[in-house]
């Protein structure tokens, strides 16, 4: 992808994934790679910040003899996701408006 993901959009995407089902870090990072060149080292501070803001809870679960850290969305996380999603949709609408209404500027070389 050529479009970078800023921290707010990354937060929205992570919350959206966790909202669908409890997830662990590697699982989230693999989904994020569909839309970004995200490095795993970038994801974990986001997950930590989401936990500090009480948007997600963290719990351990056994998997093949070792503990795996899972993230579960909270009510506050659902509210934050809804807010960020509304902001994202407004942003997309504004970008689409610019793209759909773009034309050469007056006095430009295209005249």
UniProtKB/TrEMBL annotation:
InterPro entries: Metal_resp_DNA-bind_regulator (IPR052509), Tscrpt_reg_PadR_N (IPR005149), WH-like_DNA-bd_sf (IPR036388), WH_DNA-bd_sf (IPR036390). It comes from Eubacterium plexicaudatum ASF492. Pfam families: PadR. It comes from the Bacteria. This is Transcription regulator PadR N-terminal domain-containing protein. Residues 14-80 form the Transcription regulator PadR N-terminal domain.
């Amino acid at each position: 992808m050529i479009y970078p993901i800023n921290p707010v959009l990354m937060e929205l995407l992570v919350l959206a994934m966790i909202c669908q089902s409890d997830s662990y870090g590697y699982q989230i990072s693999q989904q994020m790679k569909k839309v970004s060149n995200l490095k795993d080292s970038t994801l974990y501070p986001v997950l930590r910040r989401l936990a500090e803001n009480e948007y997600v809870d963290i719990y351990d679960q056994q998997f093949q003899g070792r503990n795996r850290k899972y993230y579960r969305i909270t009510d506050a996380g659902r509210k934050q996701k809804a807010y960020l999603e509304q902001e994202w949709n407004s942003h997309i609408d504004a970008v689409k408006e610019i793209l759909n209404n773009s034309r050469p500027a007056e006095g430009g070389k295209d005249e």
